Amino acid sequence: SRQMRRWNGVLRFTLASKVAVGEFLAASRLVGSATSFGGLRSTADRRHRWGDDVAPGLLRFSAGCEDPDDLVADIRAALDAIR
User: Fold this and answer.
1) Which pTM does this prediction carry?
2) What does the alpha-carbon distance between residue 25 and residue 34 come to, in Å, rounded to a whole number?
3) Cβ–Cβ under 8 Å, residues 12 and 61
4) Do residues 44 and 71 touch, judged by C-beta distance below 8 A?
5) Based on the number of CB atoms within 10 Å of its own CB, is 3 exposed (0-12), middle (13-18) or buried (19 or more)?
6) Do residues 42 and 71 make contact, with C-beta atoms less than 8 angstroms apart?
């Protein structure tokens, strides 16, 4: 029960389009595309591609065990790379 007191490291955010999601994932050095979570590396899932009724730009993100400063810098750089 102690481990469940805090936020779980999975969040979602919506980018402008499915193209933007692809650009984000292509630009990131640390975030890999995955259909399931639970590993040590940060991963993201594009739910729209599986036919889910969500916005095309919706991205589910699971934070891994990377250095927090490295991960934040990588995510910022990937977001900046979206055209």
Assistant:
1) 0.84
2) 11
3) yes
4) no
5) exposed
6) yes
Q: Whose structure tokens read 């095309």?
A: 56
> Which residue has 């594009």 as its token pair?
46
Structure tokens at 5: 């007191």
For residue 8 the two structure tokens come to 């779980």
Encoded tokens for 60? 């589910």
HEC string for the chain: CHHHHCCCCEEEEECCCHHHHHHHHHHCCCCEECCCCCCCCCEEECHHHHCCCCCCCEEEEECCCCCHHHHHHHHHHHHHCCC
Write out pLDDT tens, residues 47-56: 888 888 999 9
